[in-house]
Amino acid sequence: MQASARESVHPWQFGLVVCAALTPLPPLIMWPGHGLLPLAFATAAVVAVPLLLHARPSGFGWAIGIISALLLPWSVIGAMAGMVLFLPSVLQLLLAAGADPRRRPTAAKVMAGAGLLLSAAVLTSAARA
Predict the structure, then answer these.
(1) Which of 41, 62, 65, 100 counts the most CB atoms within 10 A of its CB?
(2) Are 93 and 62 within 8 A, CB to CB?
(3) Cα dihedral 97/101/102/105 (nearest 10)
(4) 104-124 residue pLDDT tens
């Protein structure tokens, strides 16, 4: 059974989740002497779980909510290990939940743009450091 275009997650939402999972990785990889790289990849894998639910928007939304709620304390508690770089991913996941232009066209454009700017800001600040 295949989901129709209306039933599936919009590509903007999908893209924001991809950004949320991948944006923290380049700074963590470039961080010298970082021994917790497997932990960072495991965290990125958990952040990417909503991508598996792209054909079910309700499951996608629930997954985003649960993962955001768990990722926020994880990034604060793991700040000394570099997991604080996943803090913007929490915001990107929440922006992805509302970035459906079929429901709210103007708000979705703002949310998608904010998520992309957040990724650019994280990567730019990591490149400067």
Answers:
(1) 100
(2) no
(3) 120
(4) 999 999 999 999 999 999 999
To which residue do tokens 């961080």 refer? Answer: 31
State both tokens at 123.
């990567």
Structure tokens at 34: 């970082």
> Global pTM?
0.88
The residues, ordered by sequence, that sit 6+ positions from 122 with a Cβ below 8 Å of its Cβ are 23, 24, 27, 85, 88
In this predicted structure, the answer to whether residue 55 has a pLDDT above a threshold of 80 is: yes
Q: 105: which 2 tokens?
A: 């066209």
Rounded CA separation 54/92 (Å)? 16
Kindly report the backbone phi and psi dihedral angles of residue 37, in degrees, each rounded to the nearest multiple of 5, phi listed first: -60, -40
Integer angstrom CA distances of residue 62 from 33, 57, 81, 120, 125: 36, 9, 28, 26, 31
Distance CA 63, CA 45 (A): 13
